[in-house]
Amino acid sequence: MEDNTQAVQALSKKDEAYVRIKDRIISGEYKPGSLLVERTLSDSLNMSRTPIRAALMDLCHTGLATFVPGKGIYVSVIGRRDIEEIYEIRALLDPAVLLSFMKQATKDQIAMLRTFADNMRDAVRMENTGMLIENDVNFHQYYTDYCGNARLADIICSTVDPFHRFRYITSSSMKMNRVFVEEHLLIMKAIEDNDQAEAELQMKAHYSHLKRYLIQKLTSEGQL
Predict the structure, then answer these.
(1) What local confidence, expressed as pLDDT, does residue 117 receive?
(2) pLDDT tens for each residue of 32-47
(3) How far is residue 154's CA from residue 146's CA, in Å, rounded to a whole number?
(4) pLDDT at 182 over 70
(5) Cα angle at 17 between 21 and 170, to 5 degrees?
(6) Range 2-15 average pLDDT
(7) Cβ within 8 Å of residue 99, ≥6 positions away
(8) HTH gntR-type domain: from which residue to which, for each copy (predicted)?
(9) What b/e readout covers 171-197, taking b as 16+ CB neighbours within 10 angstroms?
(10) Residue range 182-201: average pLDDT?
(11) Of 1.10.10.10, 1.20.210.10, 1.10.645.10, 3.40.1380.10, which CATH number belongs to 13-75?
(12) On the CB side of 75, how many CA atoms lie within 13 Å of its CA?
């Protein structure tokens, strides 16, 4: 995952450091269990150590990094409990966010969601993983941003970084990507049909499938 230079230009130095380190953790460039050294990061990102230190504390707060007293800060190792908790939260709350969106969505907003869904389908056809992940993230973030319930959206947003990390791992299989895109298209059809029960059903099924696949994949690779 390349640093998104334009996106971080307007951020504070601490926020910029956070985004750039976060992207490298999510992409797997910084491996689980690896030590995050302030001086090394300062040299790599061409930034002073003060914003790096603050960013590392924020990464610990979001769960992407772990502070070990007397040793330092490490990239968090993904555990089965982490996966189950994040997907449980998403499966419980994301359908509520989506239904809140559907109750008040305009035609233009639904059309924008369709654009993201179609872009995901096109990305799979082109086997463009970067394009796929970008539109997958945009799809879920868009209806969250416009759900009309700020408190509910804030809870969902607290899971975004580990959720994106999980999605990046599951995206390594283009065969499974095709399946996951088809699931998004089923969700999209339910939204366009204003079928709230079907949208909720498909969303929960999608998260259940993602969770099972991620656990299976990491277990087979000896990481769980």
Answers:
(1) 97
(2) 999 999 999 999 999 9
(3) 12
(4) yes
(5) 25
(6) 60
(7) 196, 199, 200
(8) 11-78
(9) beeeebbeebbebbbbbbebbbeeeee
(10) 97
(11) 1.10.10.10
(12) 21
- Give pTM, 2 decimals: 0.84
CATH of domain 80-221: 1.20.120.530
pLDDT tens-digit series, residues 99-135: 999 999 999 999 999 999 999 999 999 999 999 999 9
> What span, in angstroms and rounded, lies between the C-alpha atoms of 218 and 223?
5
Q: Are 97 and 147 in contact (CB under 8 A)?
A: yes
Residue 172: pLDDT above 70? Answer: yes
Contacts of 29 (CB under 8 A, 6+ apart): 1
Task: Dig out the tokens for 212 from the structure.
Answer: 């099972």
- Please, are residues 199 and 98 in contact by the beta-carbon 8 Å criterion? yes
45 vs 22: CA distance, rounded Å: 12
Degrees, nearest 5: CA angle 46-49-53: 125
Give the pLDDT of residue 3: 52
CA quadruple 52, 55, 61, 64: dihedral sign: negative
Please give the torsion angle defined by the CA atoms of residues 209, 214, 217 and 220, in that order, rounded to the nearest 10 degrees. -110
